[in-house]
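Complex 684.
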Amino acid sequence: ISGDEGEEIEEKEDDSEELARQVELEKLSTIDKARKSLPVYRHRTRLMDAIKENQVLIIVGETGSGKTTQLPQYLVEDGYTQKGKFQVGVTQPRRVAATSVATRVAEEMNVKLGQEVGYSIRFDDKTTPGKTVLKYATDGMLLRECLTDQNLSKYSCIMIDEAHERTLATDILLGLLKGIIKERTDLKILISSATMNAEKFSQFFNGCPILKVPGRRFPVDIHYTLQPEGNYINAAITTVFQIHTTQPLKGDILLFLTGQEEIENTRDKIEEIASKLGSRIPQLLITPIYANLPQDQQSLIFQPTPENCRKLVLATNIAETSLTIDGIKYVIDPGFVKENSYVPTTGMAQLLTVACSKASVDQRAGRAGRVGPGKCFRIFTKWSYENELEMMPKPEILRTNISNTVLLLLSLGVKDLLSFPFIDKPTIPTLIKSLESLYLLGALNSKGQITELGKIMCEFPCEPEFAKVIHTAATHPLCQGVLNECLTIVSMLHETTSIFVGNKKEATSRIVSTIESDHLLYLEVYNQWTDSGYSRAWCQDHKVQFKTMIRVRNIRSQLLKCCSKLKVDKVDCTTLSKHTNNVEKITRSFISGFPTNVIQLGNSGYHTIGKKTGGLSVLIHPSSVVFQNYKELGHKPEKFILYQQLMLTSKEYVRDCMPIPSDKWLVDMVPQLFQHLLQNNVKK
Ligand code: ADP
Ligand code: MG
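Predicted structure with magnesium ion bound:
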């Protein structure tokens, strides 16, 4: 009896809890309905049968049809994980997609993110070993897993999602999987792709079947500009307001831009215009989405648009296929994308803004036709579409530095790189260049074999160049004692685009009066923040992004863990770090990691150090403290500068710079490269 009474009392007290349960149930039933309305749901039996019968299957379907969120759940529901014995792994080319999709799927399965459903992206692992059965990971992370578990033995199914994007990591994974499936005949491989490239994947996997999921798609009216537009941003903004003021309010706008900076500037401009128009126009709710956007803001794009308001999504090409935003009726497409581009002859990697391929702009247009008939406004001419655009985007392996990948393959025991099953083989000059630069870093010996140092570099969750910096700081006789400092700088360099709130220069002046380099500035920011007890208030006072700093601290601690695991630090860094020549040691460490990122002062400004070409003229980006020191404080420019990033916009700019006050440091650290160069200079 007492038990019954107890329950009754509890029930009364828990009226509000009961209400919350009701709301929860309603939400689940809405989600359930949404899941069942997706195109893949109607084909579930056919899909699951095909998976049962084939080891490798290509799945092609309209974006938004439920491939990414639903198929992995079907696999779990059909027992492929054998009650937690195995995992289902799904790769995504982009971090934002991995986290956002995992969040959505956890919600659909009504579990806490990080438990049964989790994600794994670099420096951020939200999975629980033994509990997580469905894991969304970036393709790069799954590739790293091959280092410790060559047959991917934890998984019963792997879905390579967005395979048509042809990122370097996806291409390499497909090559590795081709070998793995021979050993692991129980492993299922799903390759999901937009229509482009599907045939090519099938050929690669010995003609495996392609299964098409018919999607719903409404017609989209395509409009072109009559003349080429000089300033596509302004043209796009004008189009936004034309749509907003002339078209019915129901129907959101998606504008494709190339990157964070462009998105933020465009948002500012649009907000300024909108505020001038005031109440004469309905409210425009602007929601950006790009790779580095903090996670809490990412979810805003998925929230339903409030009444009497129109949503404007400013997106990079992440919204082209990997994320589906409901309610988009208008797409504005300037037709540009930012791409890695690598010139093997000079060894230089750049981020370039280039014209999209036809396949890409067609995908983008399709985003307007998901909820009903839509419109797409292209900020380029019809002639350009028909005559100037490439058919397909170029796979990353053909336009990027593949040093990282070569090192990884070598450490996986691949001896003959040329016989590795690449879908598209990298060019010979690119391969040679990557072997050269790995040799320069000491990751390979003169026979092209991986060295102990090379293996260590592979273990670090960062580019081999950064791993080399850390290794040098920890072990090189001329550098020992600055491991802590270098760890901090390397970690900060992973997040440079979002350290400061607003203007970097303004924020800098609150932190230090003068400082020699961007590297030391980042170090100072981190140290001051640490001294404040990692305080949020300090960040607010100094216009520094608290969330970014937390991420940096997390990156740092993972890199540090890696150091102690590998025992690279043979000295006690705390006792030595009081030495006065720390700046020299830090600079030397970075030279050892980035010898080819050194630029030299010539008669007409700085230029890169090209072997034969004589180099490329570059400017120091105005956001760099080095620029300010030279231009505004009148410091004498150093003959050599090390940079972290080369960007081509209207001009070639280098960002995140560090002056090198002594030629000797270059020769000491990387004699193979600089001895000859400096001798030549003496002769002159
Ligand atoms: P596909 O992979 O075939 O492009 P997805 O599985 O990504 O399709 O998306 C299926 C549907 O799930 C989308 O149409 C969208 O309605 C919904 N969806 C996906 N992610 C989210 C999210 N984060 N929030 C709300 N709905 C989402
Ligand atoms: Mg998808």
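Residues 67-68, 161, 322 surround magnesium ion (ligand 2) (CB under 6 Å).
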